[in-house]
Amino acid sequence: MGFNEIMIIKYLTTLEKNTSIFKSKPMVGVSTKDIKEVEKQIGWEFPIAYKEFLHLAGESCYGLDLFPGRFSLFDLANPDSIDELNNKLKKYGVLQERPIWVFTEMDGYEQFYFFYLDENVEDPRVWRAELTDITEIGDGEKSLSAFYNELIDYSLDYRKRWGPAL
What's this model's pTM, rounded to 2 decimal places? Predict the structure, then answer.
């Protein structure tokens, strides 16, 4: 992230105050330029709440308990990663009628959280997908900022239990 870059944080103020949940390894954001390049690559603009996350922790969100697979902007936007997701959706017969963005995944896209890119809102609803023999896509009751805020609260609680030196 460039030294002179400033982004006004509207939705993820708790994350902005806690980018070093574990002191041994702070979170690393990505530049506005990188965000715009990925948006151009995928043909969609990200919602503001997700841009805030990317700005604060889009390269490394160390300390947040996201799925242990891909979560960095660069990993998720990699064409091989996008192909892997599309192949997994096809394998399980999930028709992708609307454009989605997966923001964290596990087990090679067997499970992932995503939001729809066509909602045209600043703080989209979060959906969870579990692609197994029984495909399940559900939830959508929580906004992206609420998802991250709950995750931050959980991660801060974990830090308190296991020590601030982690």
Answer: 0.88
